[in-house]
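Regression test case RT-17, inverse folding.

Input:
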């Protein structure tokens, strides 16, 4: 993409520019289809927990790849459409000094499923609970696809959660069967863990097992 932007700025060889745009389309189509596939599997895992009131469920979607056109379903058709878009936007990209459209501009949209509300409009606690649900679902997806559950490093994960949700969080982490590192500044937030956790206090730059 940097090479294309430089060629546009300098008025470089058109054949070289076209060759770069073909490569961008091939890679962009692969990335976009992989994202779509991952989101489909992640959404399926999230929907399994829709009846669980512990955490709000998220509805996931990608912002449109093409502003005024339907998205092709096949890889070959998607590559063709991306090449055409690149060629049509050369003048705009040259003026902007950057590539203004493509898979790199696609964003993730998250909706609070039970309320039908964009996650950005939720309270801090609701956003935190949505994020926890997403992290949990993603860890389960990695486990299903690779047979390896990732370590979870969760900083201030219990903050802004009420006691019931904290208990639900710890139970969900137990169910993953992996090692989790939870940090926080208030010991009371982790009381519900009880003997299931090893507690370490950081004081004066040193670690002290409790």
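Golden output:
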């Amino acid at each position: 993409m940097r090479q294309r932007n430089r060629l546009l700025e300098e008025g470089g060889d058109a054949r070289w520019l076209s060759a770069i745009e073909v490569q961008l389309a091939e890679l962009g189509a692969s990335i976009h289809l992989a994202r779509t596939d991952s989101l489909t599997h992640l959404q399926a895992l999230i929907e399994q927990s829709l009846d669980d009131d512990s955490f709000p469920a998220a509805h996931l979607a990608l912002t449109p790849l093409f502003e005024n056109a339907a998205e092709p379903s096949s890889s070959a058709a998607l590559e063709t459409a991306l090449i055409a878009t690149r060629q049509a936007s050369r003048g705009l990209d040259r003026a902007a000094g950057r590539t203004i459209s493509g898979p790199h501009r696609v964003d993730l949209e998250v909706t609070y499923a039970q309320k039908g509300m964009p996650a950005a409009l939720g309270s801090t606690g609701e956003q935190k609970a949505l994020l926890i649900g997403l992290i949990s679902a993603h860890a389960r997806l990695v486990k299903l696809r690779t047979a390896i559950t990732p370590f979870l490093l969760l900083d201030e994960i219990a903050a802004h959660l009420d006691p019931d949700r904290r208990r639900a969080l710890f139970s969900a982490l137990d169910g993953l069967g992996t090692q989790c590192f939870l940090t926080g500044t208030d010991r009371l937030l982790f009381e519900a863990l009880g003997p299931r956790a090893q507690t370490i206090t950081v004081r004066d730059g040193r670690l002290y097992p409790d």
